[in-house]
Design brief:
- By secondary structure, the chain is α/β, with parallel strands linked by helices.
- The chain has three domains: 176 residues, Alpha-Beta Complex (Amidase signature (AS) enzymes); 136 residues, no CATH class; 43 residues, no CATH class.
- It has twelve helices and ten strands.
- Strands 2-1-3-5-4-9-10-8-6-7 form a ten-stranded mixed sheet, with helices on both faces.
- Helix 5 packs antiparallel against helix 12.
- The protein is globular, with a radius of gyration of 19 Å.
Length: 402
């Protein structure tokens, strides 16, 4: 091909306005590798589209390339394009009303998951070696699980988000996808600060009984070999109930907090620009408008309690092991209540790390009805590199041979 951006996007993972490339440095740890960038992350001279054509029309080209992208380019990787996002990142399904639904190559009859759908799709399809995404409410973890790739939500505020469109500022994080565990960890060594020098090894394992209660029976059965492999590595697992007041209460707190935050960021633009949203996204922004007028102080207090609760559980050396999603990805043909019900169940799992600000990795370990399913590890704050190292160790264990 004449250019790194000249390739057959058979997965429909890249934005129509995102078919351009940036060459990486001639040498470096990522030399010869390619990556995609979620269309929430700035590239100098190009408009960041945020999943909506009206946003694309009403915003100027970025004045600088996001630092995370610059770091990867300097390490030798070549960026081959911008990937599709759900509209303003407000979904977990991965379908975009304007640009279409990227292909889930691991399960073509199922959705890829969102909002970093294009990035997960591109990696799963082998169109690039890795891809950047963002995760506020599960937007890397869920598509990683659905598409059968590695994905990480980093510790809240550990990586600066300069040059990234804000969505829910107190929840937004950077993440990435790979097919290979060693590359997964290698990207972390480039983008993440070192772990605290005095941090003890991760050596205590817990299983979230309430997260498992949200998970389909067939999916739990499919994950048993992976749970066993983690147990071999970390020792016997203690069952814990993560949310004493119930994961549905936590999901509702996440829903109110995130809605009020995203309206505070985007409400004025929505009122002025009057964008066309897909039906589900339009409904969520209508709720966000309502939430912006509510007293969310109790929700902030509840979130503080959740952060304390999770830090008491993991302390400095603990890992919580749980299904990434309640089951494999919904079928592309699913509509209405079935999609919304599954989304809510998924949010009961993703809100744990989201509200607590802890790092979470999703490992591709199982299949159910021929579709991928991920197992997640949540660790102490700032121990992202240790979770990535654990992912590499587990990739060489029976967890990968099942």
């Amino acid at each position: 091909m004449t250019s790194p951006a000249d390739f057959d996007d058979f997965a429909g993972a890249f934005c129509p306005h995102g078919r351009f490339a940036l060459a990486g440095a001639a040498s470096g740890p990522l030399a010869g590798l390619t990556f995609g960038v979620k269309d929430f992350i700035d590239i100098e001279g190009h408009v960041t589209g945020a999943g909506n054509p009206r946003w694309l029309e009403t915003h100027p080209p970025a004045s600088a390339t996001a630092p995370c992208v610059r770091t990867l380019l300097a390490a030798g990787a070549t960026m081959i394009g911008k990937t599709i996002s759900d509209e303003l990142a407000y979904s977990l399904n991965g379908d975009n009303f304007h640009y279409g639904t990227p292909r889930n190559s691991a399960a073509p009859d199922r959705v890829p998951g969102g909002s970093s759908s294009g990035s997960a799709s591109a990696v799963a399809a082998g169109l690039c070696d890795f891809a950047l995404g963002t995760d506020s409410g599960g937007s890397v973890r869920i598509p990683a699980s659905y598409c059968g790739v590695y994905g990480i939500r980093t510790t809240q505020d550990l990586i600066p988000l300069d040059g990234i469109v804000p969505f829910m500022p107190s929840l937004d994080t950077l993440g990435w996808f790979t097919r290979d565990a060693r590359l997964f960890a290698g990207i972390g060594r480039l983008l993440l600060p070192p772990a605290p020098a005095d941090a003890p090894p991760l050596r205590r394992l817990m299983r979230s009984s309430d997260a498992e209660a949200e998970t389909d029976a067939a999916s739990l059965e499919a994950l048993q070999h992976a749970f066993a492999a983690v147990t071999v590595r970390l020792g016997s697992a203690e069952a814990v109930r993560v949310a004493p007041d119930g994961l549905e209460a936590w999901r509702n707190q996440f829903r109110l907090l995130s809605a009020a935050e995203t309206w505070s960021i985007h409400g004025a633009w929505i009122e002025t620009a009057k964008p066309v949203f897909g039906p589900a996204i339009a409904d969520r922004f209508a709720f966000a408008r309502e939430a912006s007028g509510l007293d969310v102080a109790p929700v902030h207090a509840a979130r503080d309690a959740i952060r304390r609760r999770l830090r008491e559980i993991v302390q400095h050396d603990g890992v919580v092991c749980l299904p990434t999603s309640p089951g494999p990805a919904p079928l592309r043909s699913a509509t209405g209540e079935a999609v919304e019900s599954f989304r809510q169940r998924a949010q009961r799992l993703t809100c744990i790390a989201g509200l607590s600000g802890l790092p979470q990795v999703s490992l591709p370990v199982a299949t159910v009805d021929g579709a991928p399913l991920g197992l997640s590890l949540i660790g102490p704050p700032g121990r992202d590199l240790d979770l990535l190292a654990l992912a590499v160790e587990l990739a060489g264990s029976p967890i990968a041979a099942h």
